[in-house]
Amino acid sequence: MSRLFRRGFSDEDLDKALAASYRHAAFADGSPADDGQIQQELHEITARASRLGVQGPEIDVLEAYSRLLGRVMCVGIAVVFIFVGLVLVAAAHVRVLLVLLVPVVLMALAFQVVAWHVLTHGEGTAEGGSRRGVRGWLPKMPGRRDGQADQLGW
Amino acid sequence: MPATGFDDFYRAHREGLLVFIRQYGGPGLDAEDICGEAWARAFARWRMISEPRGWVFRVAINLAHRAGREASRARPSGDVLDFEHAAARWPWSTPMPGAEWGALVSDIRDALQRLPGQQRAAVLLDHAGWSPPEIADALGCSAGTVRGHLFRGRAKLRRFLDEPRPAAQRVAGEGLEGRMV
């Protein structure tokens, strides 16, 4: 790091660095736009919006999928603990073990398929789909408030 | 297609979104195109959006994620910031610092890119003056989560920026003392 910051980076230093980054980003492509430029941009936005027939996903599918899986993992870990206990009990009985294992694996696979389908075919995604179906299937995302689903196209 | 209030909203937040995406997405991303797409989507759904600022930032973040994934597959790493272009547009009366200023901005940009997306967004929006509830609205999480992102994100940034750099880059930063912007 530069000499200024060699003795450790304080919060104040960080704010200065962020301010430098902000200024660079703000003026990397020109000074503040004048009214004519903004009007031109608004025309372009209007034209671009009119070309938006079937819209792409506003939600980042991979991120939403990972968050969904993260939530499922919390439940999954609890299930695994219970399952391991049952396995220990059933260890001497292979058929019992299979009876326990197969449904769990099938349910996990089914969930993956359903989750991926919902996230890639729901309303607001490239393939369109039923919003009600999406909202019925998906658990509420962490922190997502009621009504936000509509805004984001779910 | 009339959209009451969209023009004023666009004028108020156009620059904020562009600057945010330029920092959030890194130097290799076409921030103007991402913002244009986000604004077009906002325009198309204007009447359905109740909290437009958070909505349009959220959409732009998601578009940046997608563009980043595509760009990372399409190009090798090692993009550099366009300082010559920035210098040509420098609006202040004092001359724009040279390589040492560039080293500082490069450092903070590199450090930002090493943060997870939500922490990066939280730090940048916080620096832009957003409150935790406003950031939470844009990121789709709770205000408490945003505070956590801020604390961890800023701590990581300080640690990243404290890490020793190669000798060649240190030389570039020698003249920075006393010239912070």
Can you give keywords for this protein?
heterodimer, A: 154 residues, mainly alpha, 6 helices, B: 181 residues, 9 helices, 0% strand, globular, disordered C terminus
Structural features, described:
Chain A has 154 residues and is mostly helical. Chain A is elongated, with a radius of gyration of 25 Å. The relative contact order of chain A is 0.09. Chain A has helices at 11-27, 35-51, 61-90, 94-121, 131-137, 148-152. Chain B has nine helices and no strands. Chain B is globular and about 50 Å long. Chains A and B meet through α1, α2 and α6 of A and α1, α2, α3, α5 and α6 of B.
Architecture blueprint of SSEs:
The complex is a heterodimer of chains A (154) and B (181).
Chain A: H1 11-27, H2 35-51, H3 61-90, H4 94-121, H5 131-137, H6 148-152
Helix pairs in contact in A: 3-4
Chain B: H1 6-25, H2 31-44, H3 52-74, H4 83-88, H5 99-114, H6 117-127, H7 132-139, H8 143-162, H9 167-172
Helix pairs in contact in B: 1-2, 1-3, 2-3, 3-7, 5-8, 6-7, 6-8, 7-8
